[in-house]
Design brief:
By secondary structure, the protein is an alpha+beta fold. It has one domain: Porin, CATH 2.40.160. Helices cover 16% and strands 62% of the residues. It has an eight-stranded antiparallel β-barrel with strand order 1-2-3-5-6-7-8-9. A hairpin with a 2-residue loop joins strand 5 and strand 6. It is elongated, with a radius of gyration of 20 Å.
Length: 204
């Protein structure tokens, strides 16, 4: 039985690797996007709006795994020369409680760059949509039964991979006071990873 279980686990690892390796881009693409974004972000004048920092709890939905918990921090800066409602946003997400599935623990971090459009519904309430690229680094830790020295034992192994994919999302902001907003949103980070998030934005 341990041998059959080990084969099943190996098969599941290969399946996860296929999920993350469908379309692999190099880090040069990310560098190109960053450079391109830098050319359109204007120098902020003394009277222009400063950036916005956000911190959020993320509830990831990973295909084939139970729910976990992640944190996300981001920085947003207006790009009025593109459109008065347009901004550029960078976001870092890291899992702090790994989703699991039958002895498999899934952990990851992601780095995203978005173009974001915000629609002001009223002075205190905004809706937004965003689209961009996300670099994801994921690791699966496996615990399984094995034979060590001819005796049953518990073994662990890990497999990791990276991917860059198109991401898109939408959400809302509600003003708590002139310098702070409550924010919540939904993001399709990867075709097998969705994010439901909520947190606070601080206007600098």
């Amino acid at each position: 039985m341990p041998g059959f279980l080990a084969c099943d686990v190996i098969g599941r690892i290969k399946l996860l690797k296929i999920i993350f390796c469908e379309v692999t881009f190099t880090m040069k693409i990310i560098k190109f996007v960053i450079i391109a974004a830098a050319t359109i972000i204007p120098l902020q004048s003394a009277h222009a709006q400063s950036g916005v920092v956000n911190a959020q709890l993320v509830f990831p939905d990973v295909d084939g795994f139970s729910d976990g918990l992640s944190i996300a921090v981001g920085y947003e800066i207006p790009v009025p020369n593109v459109h008065p409602n347009f901004s550029a946003e960078g976001e870092l997400t890291k899992s702090i409680s790994s989703p699991d599935s039958g002895g498999l623990d899934f952990s990851y971090y992601s780095l995203s760059g978005y173009g974001k459009y915000t629609h002001k519904v009223d002075p205190n309430f905004n809706l937004y949509g965003r689209v961009g690229l996300t670099y994801t680094s994921a690791e699966v830790d496996v615990t399984y039964l094995c034979l060590v020295g001819g005796l049953p034992s518990t073994c662990t192994s890990s497999n990791s991979d990276t991917d860059t994919s198109l991401s898109l999302g939408f959400g809302m902001d509600y003003a708590i006071n002139p310098q702070m907003d409550f924010t919540a949103g939904f993001t399709i980070l990867h075709k097998d990873i969705n994010h439901l998030s909520a947190g606070i934005k601080f206007k600098l």
